[in-house]
Structures are given as structure tokens and as C-alpha cells.
Design a protein that fits this description.
Helix content is 21%, strand content 33%. The protein is of the alpha+beta class. It has a single domain, classed as tt1808, chain A, CATH 3.90.1570. Strand 12 and strand 13 form a beta hairpin.
């Protein structure tokens, strides 16, 4: 007798749109993943990083900065909500009425106990596949930020910046953030 193998349902953007408005979800490779609300420290770090980048981007007329919760539609099976994202002025056309329609130029994810695997493995691979030029992983427990740059469709570590250092972005030239003001 032949055995039947149950196939796992792949969700699409249409399924994603039916999720409850008061809950946060992400769609990664067709898997619907609930995203818990961030903790206070996470929110403070996010606010302070975004403030520093926003000042720089506005002063230099470089593009737009957004923060979660805000959908980034990559394709029918991939919709994410990065903590912070940057879209260059040359690519402002990907900003839609309800979401971003394509890959941001820079994405920043802040690790939490619930998001480490998703941010370090799943989303890192996804962002590389969809050509996000620079990816920052903020590690609150270590008070550090890892910056990855895209080379040959994969990320390579550019540098890890610690609390007592000044972060410099390879993509956003001349952006400098004193991390003692973040952590």
C-alpha cells in the first residue's frame, strides 16, 4: 500500500492580507510567522538608531527611512517587517501606498530572544537573495552591530562595531554613529 505524504501548506501574500490587524506576522518562504511585540530595550535601540540615520539621510537628501511595523513585499511568498529600512532617492518608486514593493537598500534587524534564528538565518538569506545591499544585525546583549555587505548574492561580514566604537556604513558614505549613544 502506498503511503501518502502530507504537504505543508505554503501561504501567499493573499493569505498574509487576511491575518488579524492587531497581530504582527511575516511571510518567509511561504511560512506564516507571528512576530511578538518588541521589548522596551529593543524599542529604545531602534528609536535611537533610526534617529541618527534619519538626521543623516535628511541632511543629505538621500532618500527615505521607515520602521516596523511596515510591510516590505518581496514576492508572493515573502513579506517582512524589518525594524528599520532605508530606500535611496533613486529608488523611491518602490514605495507604495500600503507597503514597499521591492528590496530596500539597507535593512536593520535588532535581535531579540524570539527573533535570533529568523534574523540571523532566514531573513539574512532572504535579504541576500533579494539584493539588499547592506544588512545590519544589532545584538543588544553584546552591545554590538554587525554590518554585512552583499557580494556575489551572499553576505560577507564587513565589520562588527562595539559600544565604544563609531559605526561607519559602507553604503551610506560618511554616516557615523557613536554607539555609546545607542547602547
Amino acid at each position: 500500500m502506498a503511503r501518502t505524504v502530507a504537504q505543508k501548506k505554503k501561504f501567499t501574500y493573499q493569505d498574509y492580507l487576511k491575518t488579524p490587524a492587531d497581530e504582527r506576522y511575516e511571510l518567509i518562504e511561504g511560512d506564516m510567522l507571528m512576530t511578538p511585540s518588541p521589548a522596551t530595550r529593543h524599542q529604545k535601540i531602534s528609536r535611537d538608531i533610526e534617529f541618527e540615520i534619519l538626521k543623516f539621510v535628511r541632511a543629505n537628501h538621500l532618500g527615505e527611512i521607515f520602521d516596523a511595523p511596515y510591510d516590505v513585499y518581496l514576492d508572493e511568498e515573502n513579506v517582512v517587517q524589518p525594524d528599520i529600512l532605508f530606500i535611496s532617492k533613486e529608488r523611491l518608486n518602490i514605495i507604495g501606498e500600503k507597503n514597499i514593493q521591492g528590496s530596500p537598500d539597507l535593512v536593520i534587524e535588532i535581535l531579540s530572544e524570539n527573533s535570533a534564528y529568523r534574523d540571523l538565518v532566514q531573513k539574512k538569506k532572504l535579504y541576500a537573495r533579494f539584493s539588499v545591499k547592506e544588512y545590519w544585525v544589532v545584538i543588544p546583549d553584546e552591545e554590538s552591530i554587525e554590518i554585512y555587505i552583499l557580494k556575489d548574492n551572499t553576505y560577507t561580514i564587513h565589520k562588527t562595531f562595539n559600544k565604544n566604537e563609531t559605526l561607519e556604513s559602507p553604503y551610506l558614505k560618511d554616516l557615523r554613529i557613536e554607539l555609546k549613544n545607542i547602547f
